[in-house]
Amino acid sequence: NAHLWEFPNTELNGTPELSAAARSALGFTPESYQRLCTIKHSITRYRITLEAHRVVPANDSAGGAGRWLTLRELDGLAFTSAHKKIIAVLADRG
């Protein structure tokens, strides 16, 4: 997915420990998170399931290594098709 934007993510198998997964993907442990949506996606012969979560950073977190953008700012970026589905859910739910 070179040159395409994606939300922070990590690959998990089995029953994930969400705090550790969030820390791995974001660079900090969120104060809270809630499930946003589940996205089923296919890439050639591969089937993937994305579990997207909304997070609230803890007050003392440094913000991680990424950039935080508004929904309007996301609209102008080239995302992978799976992550565009997440943006559509965010736009629908506000």
Poorly predicted parts: none
Q: How many β-strand stretches?
A: 2
Beta-strand content: 25-35%
Rounded to an integer, what's the Rg over CA atoms? Answer: 14 Å
The dominant shape is globular
Order of helices and strands: HEEHH
Largest sheet, order of strands side by side? 1-2
Mean pLDDT: 85
Cα distance spanning the termini: 27 Å
Helix content, binned percent = 25-40%
User: How can the largest sheet be summarized?
Assistant: 2 strands, antiparallel
Quaternary structure type: single chain
| Structural class category | alpha+beta
Total number of helical segments? 3
Overview of the molecule:
- It is a single chain.
- With 94 residues, the protein is α+β, with helices and mostly antiparallel strands.
- Helix content is 28%, strand content 28%.
- It has 3 helices and 2 strands; from the N terminus they run H-E-E-H-H.
- The chain has helices at residues 18-26, 71-74, 81-93, and strands at residues 30-43, 46-57.
- It has a two-stranded antiparallel ribbon with strand order 1-2.
- The longest helix is centred in the last third of the chain and has 13 residues, at 81-93.
- It is globular.
- The model has no long low-confidence stretch (mean pLDDT 85).
